[in-house]
Amino acid sequence: TAFGFRQVREGEKQHLVNDVFHRVADRYDLMNDLMSAGLHRAWKSAMVDWLSPPKRPGYKALDVAGGTGDIAFRIVEASNRNAHVTVLDINGSMLSVGRDRAVKRGIDQHLTFVEANAEELPFPDNTFDAYTIAFGIRNVPRIQVALNEAFRVLKPGGRFLCLEFSEVTVPMLDRFYDAWSFHAIPRIGKMVAGDAESYQYLVESIRKFPNQENFAEMIRKAGFSRVTWRDYTGGIAAAHSGWKI
Ligand code: SAM
After folding, report:
1. What does the pLDDT read at residue 11?
2. Which residues are within 8 A (CB) of 176 and not within 5 positions of it... i.e. 6 or more apart?
3. CA-wise closest residue to 162 among 236, 65, 85
4. Per the count of CB atoms within 10 A, which of 75, 138, 144, 182 is most buried?
5. How many of the other CB atoms lie within 10 Å of CB of 226?
6. Can you tell me the ipTM of this complex?
7. Better-predicted residue by pLDDT, 198 or 26
8. Strand-pair partners of 218
9. 43 lines ligand 1 (CB under 6 A)
10. Ligand 1 center to residue 237 CA distance, Å?
11. Cα 111 to ligand 1 centroid, rounded to whole Å
12. Residue 91 Cβ contacting ligand 1 at under 6 Å
């Protein structure tokens, strides 16, 4: 491969991903801003706008791979602090940064933090009104298993929304984006986290992730209906939506 990384096996992959996020948890938000040049904020806001949670109590959302809480906080605020959001992540270090941020914002009573695996959600069937996952599913070893779990825990009528890096559909942009991801991102990773290799792995995982149409097909395969997507910044990221009917 481009970075001399051997094929990463499924079991190994989760370890690699866990190491990366344990190491960078306290610098994660800064890294995101630097690596996406601040764009991740706009993409996350656009996804939560698309979700448009109701501004009344009783709405329950699950934010998987929720990390330091960016999506969950936006859902709570978009609902006028009515929604309750469960933030689930496999990594306790990321969650504890999220919990501290929530307390600082005074919204921790609207959140529950759960350390668990997206492939094995510790909730009964038909529990949530919405399932969100942002820049997380790419890191899960068995993506289809995670999608099936999403379908299972949603109530009938529930909404699935996934934000992820995708295929750039604008001709000149893809060249710039390649240069950015292969050169800038590992350098920023080295500067801020002292570690370029992990970030090379993350860049590679973006390359391997299915494009918009193929990912939509996986979401349909999990059982979702009316699957659509929106490209952000020329397809650098895309949000996919589906409904459990
Ligand atoms: N959603 C947050 C955001 O957009 O800022 C965090 C995204 S971060 C790039 C990816 C997160 O996925 C990490 O916090 C990592 O611990 C989590 N993760 C990786 N594998 C996971 C799994 N199998 N189950 C749940 N979370 C996982």
Report:
1. 72
2. none
3. 65
4. 75
5. 10
6. 0.99
7. 26
8. none
9. no
10. 16
11. 17
12. yes
Annotated ligand binding at 193? The verdict is no
**Looking at this protein, which amino acid is placed at residue 217?**
E
How far apart, in whole angstroms, are the C-alpha atoms of residue 107 and residue 119?
28
Question: Which single residue is written with the structure tokens 């949603």?
Answer: 154
Half-sphere exposure of 210 (CA within 13 A, CB side): 12
pTM over 0.90: yes
Residue to probe by mutation, ligand 1, list 15, 17, 64, 138, most atoms within 8 Å of CB: 17
Of 98, 197, 90, the residue nearest 146 (C-alpha) = 90
**DSSP E strands, the chain:** 60-64, 84-89, 111-115, 128-134, 154-165, 225-232, 237-243
Residue 55 C-alpha to ligand 1 middle, in angstroms? 27
135 CB less than 6 Å from ligand 1? Answer: yes
Q: What is the CATH number of domain 10-243?
A: 3.40.50.150
Q: Is 134 in the pocket of ligand 1 (CB under 6 A)?
A: yes
Q: Ligand 1 centroid vs 2 CA: distance in angstroms?
A: 24
For residue 214, say whether it is annotated as part of any ligand binding site: no
Q: What gap in Å lies between CA 209 and CA 44, rounded to an integer?
A: 19
Residue 10's pLDDT band (cuts 50, 70, 90): low
